[in-house]
Amino acid sequence: MRAKRKGLNRVRIIGGRHRGRRLAFPDLPGLRPTGDRIRETLFNWLQPMLPGARCLDLFAGSGALGLEAASRGAGEVLLLDQAPQAVRQLQGHIVDLGLSQAKAVQADALDWLQAAPPQPSFDIVFIDPPFSAGLLEPCCQQLASSGLLAENARVYLETDVVESLPFFSPQWRILREKRSGQVTYCLLAWQ
């Protein structure tokens, strides 16, 4: 096995128009892309509603989820991250891949959710914050009260097995839930 060179982290797009493309991402604390097997499962779940969907990636980091959605036909993808290095890298990937439907913005996810106008709403939201940061529940609460979710929107949550999934109001319905190693992930429907 080759030694990993510092700063040369890579993630692979696993489906769609850019399948197989390897993209670099910065070596930042807490930044860990969603693994290939989990992404394959997630995008199998989302495939019926993905073409043309408006997607929001609240903790974009490497871009593994947002860029994957764009590669697979999402109509619009907004990738947020608070690390300037990550956002610059994402912006470069968007240009290099010709993803005119994608945009990367530097922003704190919770601040952005509080300030965002409610229209237009999102069909799919990815919430994969740094593990043990305690951000899943506040993000879900902000989303629920923000008006940013389209009717029957899907919200993906990912965390480590130590952190429990947030308590959900009756407007949320868990559609799928799985565990892979030390990662728990689920897909919710907003009603």
List keywords for this structure.
191 residues; alpha/beta; Rossmann fold; two-stranded antiparallel sheet; 5 helices; 26% helix; 30% strand
**Can you tell me the CATH superfamily?**
Vaccinia Virus protein VP39
Give the strand content.
25-35%
Euclidean distance between termini CA atoms: 47 Å
Largest sheet: 7 strands, mixed
Order of adjacent strands in the largest pleated sheet = 5-4-3-6-7-9-8
The CATH topology assignment is: Rossmann fold
- Count of β-strands: 9
Q: List unreliable stretches of 5+ residues.
A: 1-5
Assigned CATH class? Alpha Beta
Class inferred from helices and paired strands: alpha/beta
Bulk shape: globular
Taken in chain order, the helices and strands follow as EEHEHEHEHEHEEE
Helix percentage: 25-40%
Counted by DSSP, the helix tally is 5
Question: What does the model show?
Answer:
The chain has helices at about 35-45, 65-70, 85-95, 110-115, 135-145; strands spanning about 10, 20-25, 55, 75-80, 100-105, 120-125, 150-160, 170-180, 185-190. With about 190 residues, it is α/β, with parallel strands linked by helices. It has one domain: Rossmann fold. It has a seven-stranded mixed β-sheet, with helices on both faces. It has a two-stranded antiparallel sheet with strand order 1-2. Strand 4, helix 3 and strand 5 form a beta-alpha-beta unit. Helix 4 (about 110-115) runs parallel beside helix 5. It is globular and about 40 Å long. The N and C termini lie far apart (about 45 Å). Residues about 1-5 have low confidence and may be disordered.
